[in-house]
Amino acid sequence: MAETAQIAEFAAGLRFQDIPQPVWRKALDHVIDAIGCGLAGAGSSLSRQFLHVLSEEAGPGPCSVMGTTRSFGPGSAAFANAMAINALDFDDGLEEDGKGLGHPGATIIAAAISAAFLRPVSGRDFLTAVVAGYEVNARLIRAIQPGIQRFRLVYGVCQHQGIGGAAAFGRLMGLDAAGMANALGFAGTLANVPSLRKYNWDSRPLVSFKDFVAPAAESAVRAVRLHQGGMIGAANVLDGETGLWRMLGSDRYAPDLLTDGLGRDWSLDMATIKPWPTCRWMHCTLASLDALMRDHGVGAGNIERITLHVSDGLLRDFMQVRPATMVDAQFSLPYAIAAMLQAIPPAQWYAPDRLSDPALLALAARVSGETDPKADAQMHEHRRPAGRVSVVLRDGRQIAAPLICYPPGSRQNPLPEDFVGQKFRDNLAGIMPQRHAQETLDAFLTLQDCDDVAAVLRPLLTGAELAG
Predict the structure, then answer these.
(1) Alpha carbon 376 to its chain's center
(2) For the chain, first and last CA: distance in Å?
(3) What is the pLDDT of residues 267-294, one digit of tens each?
(4) From CA 438, how far away is CA 374, in angstroms rounded?
């Protein structure tokens, strides 16, 4: 059986009882994280801009949109909710040995949420679909990883994620294996082109879409709906020398990574949770600063200057001191360093008054960088960021932290067990009372016992209308 057929059969046929408890529990953590990030991000200027444009085209429908009282059709709602989840760059990731491989939750969970508003979906069915989506997504992106030279020419961070999103949405819409294969054909051919090298790195501001998680979520839903409408998609879209890997610009394809151990060996432990709302490539450096703050009492008031020891690529693309937009700020090490030193709650880093705060920008201006040979080699050879921080204090003391090679939230550097819950409460702190946030978290922690996911989601998503 070819790869597309095997993937489709797995996604359509997966049952909750087939999934080990640690795997579906991990999936539940990512659902909770995505919804918290989405509610925090829905009030951002970026999310509101996209929602304004979308509202001109999307008519009313059954699917709730995060942080608003609006409801759209399933494709438009998936787009809006994925955009909200990703707006702060606080959403989850996927990593293999420290190498970033996308933002799966924004696409997959947004698509699954749309399905929950179209038909009755139990918590177990919802988690089963999310696990299927993450598994398909992780296997696909690993199977199509390019060589390092091709990566430097062409790459797409999340362009493949419509496949995982379609697996999740299609599973919840009751597709059989043949229908799933047809929907995956649509999802693959609806994918955006891989455009990482055209994000405006040399001509800021950066592109507003960042990693294109929202178009992937919309195309995931659209793919399944096209199949349900009787349309014919690309057959065997993943297979052979002309498969999706070639369409997405890769020069390598490892089909065994797609299918070997499917349904037995699980990839969800490669999914990561972010402690800070920035590009993941910055997190090793931010973790180094966090250690200095924790171990030496370093803070905004006692620092004279800060030096970042990172790869030359981070020095080239991530050192903008005065970011013009919130997206630019998410890719600015000086801005993030200053926000951490000022102890700004992560969900508030990109509020308009923060982006123009003279004190924050003055602190960011004290940040400089230099190439660390080990970090540079690690990035050039393995696409794996690393970083460390050294500071000079106002009293003349110099303090340095060791190089960090794996960011917090990765398999090699796990976060505390209660981190996801605390992050969820923190993300909702500006939206609802703490008691309500805890009650909401408690409801999600037992989602596997829920008979109707929409009944849990609807009052949360529409009851959190955000102040502008």
Answers:
(1) 25
(2) 53
(3) 999 999 999 999 999 999 999 999 999 9
(4) 43
**Whole-number Å distance between alpha carbons of 468 and 460:** 18
- Is this prediction's pTM over 0.85? yes
Identity of residue 145 = Q
At 182-223, the pLDDT tens digits run 999 999 999 999 999 999 999 999 999 989 999 999 999 999
Which residues fall within 8 angstroms of residue 331, CB to CB, at 6 or more apart?
206, 278, 279, 282, 317, 318, 320, 323
Residue type, 257: L
Q: Return the pLDDT at 467.
A: 39
What is the chain's mean pLDDT, rounded?
96
Residues 58, 64: Cα–Cα separation, whole Å? 12
Q: Could you check whether the bond before residue 194 is cis, i.e. omega within 30 degrees of 0?
A: no
Residue 462 has which token pair?
Answer: 């529409």
Domain 3-272: give its CATH code: 1.10.4100.10
Q: Is residue 465's pLDDT more than 60?
A: no
The domain locations on the chain are 3-272, 280-400
Whether 196 contacts 156, CB under 8 Å: yes
Architecture of domain 280-400: 2-Layer Sandwich (3.30)
pLDDT tens, position by position, 411-422: 999 999 999 999
Residue with token string 């649509």: 186
Contacts (Cβ under 8 Å, ≥6 apart) of 301: none
Residue 265's Cβ-count burial label (10 Å; 0-12, 13-18, 19+) is: exposed
Residue 160's CB is within 10 A of a number of other CB atoms, namely 29
- Stretch 107-121: mean pLDDT: 98
Q: What token pair was written down for 292?
A: 């200095």
